[in-house]
Amino acid sequence: MDLNLILQLTTSGFLLGGVYSLIALGLSLIFGVMKVINFAHGAMLVWGMYIAFTLMNWTGIDPFFSFAVSAACLFVLGYIVQRTVVNRIMTFHESMQVIAMVGVMMVLENMAQLIWGPDPHSPHTKYSLSTVWLGSVMIDIPRLLAFILAILIAAAVFVFLKYTDIGKSIRASADNRIGALIVGANVNKVYAVCFGVGAACVGAAGSLLVPLMPVSPHTGFPFKLTSFAIVILGGMGSLPGAMIGGLMIGVAESLGTVFIPSSLKQVISFGIMVLILLLRPKGLFGGKG
Amino acid sequence: MKIIYSFLSILLLILLLLPNFVSDYILGIFVLIFFYAYMGQSWNVLTGYAGPISLGHSLYLGIGAYISTKLAMSFGVTPWIGMWVGGLGAALVGLAIGFLGFRFGLKGVYFVLLTIAFGEIGRLTVLHLKPLGHMMGLFVDFKPGFVNFHFRGNLPYYYIALGFVVFSLIVVRALEVSKWGRYFVALREDEDAAESLGVNVFKYKMIAIGISSFMTALGGTFYANYIFYLHPTSVMSMWVSIEIIMRPIIGGLGTPFGPLIGSFLLTPLSEIARSYFTKAGLEGIHIVIYGLLLIAAVLFFPGGIFAFIKKIVKPILGESKEI
How far is CA A242 from the centre of its chain? Predict the structure, then answer.
């Protein structure tokens, strides 16, 4: 096999993996604190994409700058969703939680379709086809920028969780819900902010994806499933796990296209997910089972 | 119980006579009501009674649909026989997934994700198999006749689907009062307690997933011969699994009537909303409304509609009457 091809695929998979990481970070954060799987994660990604896309069409602001707007809008959306739905279903049977979150997904996904129409849009940015060569490996500039920004945003989220009061409360609630209650954390607020931050992550990620792929109401679905695989690989609720898992899945999917058609590449993530579920369900980096 | 049985007999009588009074379009809606009630019931056996939550039942639907259709198209085997082959195929796959999941002790969301993973692997695999239509899907040749399971108009499908529903109700009711059913409920409620009392948790979960996947695949055959077109996106996507599980959850999990009630409420709603809003040029809004209703149903009837009806009916019938 051609070594150069392997290097090429690894690089491009690794770069896309950065965005995967950011998406999975949001999912893992929400699960870690609330033990609810956000089935609307893919729909939220799509909202992030459309917000950036619309801003670009109206004002010409590049998606690589407008991710902040997407993140802010999605924070509000996530906050509202948590307050109106998630907060009320946290003690329910898991199947009921799934159904409620699927309901949220249906609403968000099809609202996007109502607002922006069902057709895919492929926005053109001035650098969309530009590349740089690193030795014999070609690197897409948009992919590289998306990767760098995704890592920076993720780092900002880590700083937020580590050094702000509300971030500390979020980590405390993730660690020990009852303990956090006892020491007087305003758990309702913590949950809502946490869901908002999780949604903001995926919103920003959506914005970063705009230069990379067509925007359509149903783009989010495969990403959501991939991010499930990442979160399982890294460990449910483990944030560093989500980051590293995202990069690993990105590379694995990309390398897999050597052996199988690229439309089948998700089978690799699901295969990894099944293996991890069976052999190490707490994930590679999950502390507790 | 007597009251319920007499009520059901009357309902069945009405449903048997109904085709004399309504149009073919309405009959079509009833076919879908029965179909989803049946699929929900099949899923209910596993998740409602035994506990493990599956979000991958589209896999079994797909296996049933593809096996019986392929047998009919390539070997001329009537779907009436093919459906049992499909059922066995799906049961084998279900048992394999169950073996992995239950042997390795996956619970709650972890089992959900396992079933999603296998469902998606199945869908993507079928999408790339040439004999199963590749990306184009599989068109079923329309050859009307009882043997081929193909009919003109909705009337024959109506009675067949009704038969499916009655069959599933009898199966679930028989399960419910049997030793197996009691064990299912015991391990749903508290696995460790059930195990400590000597229930073989693994064995009974396997039995539940076997029955459930078998029944789902039978429905898959019906679906294939009602729709005449199979594509992995339309019969095996996660969306299909969601459609299957919605009705029993809304109606009432772990009750024989939950899937039926859920389907009678949701199916016409989705059909009417679909045709109404599509005519008005607002495609997609029906799913928004549908989604809002789902959320509302979960928030306000967390135990399912059946539990709610029971609560209302009980004082009227008197406390002593068991429903």
Answer: 9
Which residues from B are below 8 Å from A90, CB to CB? none
Q: What tens digit of pLDDT does each residue of B261-297 get?
A: 999 988 988 888 777 777 766 667 878 887 888 898 8
Per-position b or e across B7-20, b if 16+ CB within 10 A of its CB: ebeeeeeebeeebe
Return d(Cα A144, Cα A150) in angstroms, integer.
Answer: 10
Helix (H, G, I), strand (E, B) or coil at B203: helix
Residue in A closest to B101 by C-alpha: A278
- CA–CA dist A111, A138 (Å, integer): 38
Judged by CB atoms closer than 8 Å, whether chains meet at A110 and B287 is answered as yes
Number of domains making up chain B: 1
User: B180: distance to nearest CA of chain A, Å?
Assistant: 22
Closest residue on chain A to B97 (Cα)? A274
CB contact at 8 A, B79 and B68 = yes
Torsion angle, alpha carbons of A115, A120, A123, A127, to 10: 140
Partner-chain contact A225 B110, CB within 8 Å: no
Report if residue B278 sits inside a domain.
Answer: yes
Write the pLDDT tens digit of every residue in A246-279: 999 999 999 988 888 878 888 898 999 999 988 8
Residues of B in contact with A89 (CB under 8 A): 298-299, 302
A286, A236 contact by CB (below 8 A): yes
Residues of A in contact with B243 (CB under 8 A): none
Q: pTM of the entire structure? A: 0.89
**CB contact A213 to B (< 8 Å):** no
Task: Identify from A274, A279, A280, A282 which residue to disrupt to test chain B contact, counting B C-beta atoms within 10 A and taking the largest count.
Answer: A274
Please give the ipTM for the structure prediction. 0.86
CA–CA gap between residue B100 and residue B119 (Å, rounded): 14
CB pairs under 8 A between A and B: 130
How far, CA to CA in Å, does B26 sit from each of B20, B22, B31, B145, B159?
11, 6, 9, 23, 14
Q: Residues 6 or more apart from B5 whose CB is under 8 A from it? A: none
Shortest Cα distance, chain A CAs vs residue B255, angstroms: 15
In a domain, B204, yes or no: yes
DSSP state of B141: P
Residue type present at position A131: T
CA pair distance B74, B71, nearest whole angstrom: 5
Q: Which is it for strands A137-140 and A131-134: parallel, antiparallel or unpaired?
A: antiparallel
CATH number, position B274: 1.10.3470
Q: Would B322 be classed as within a structural domain?
A: no
Nearest Cα residue to A44 out of A99, A95, A103, A112: A112
Query: Which residues are CB-contacts of B165 (< 8 A; sequence separation ≥ 6)?
Result: B34, B37, B38, B41, B260
Host domain of residue B197: 2-317
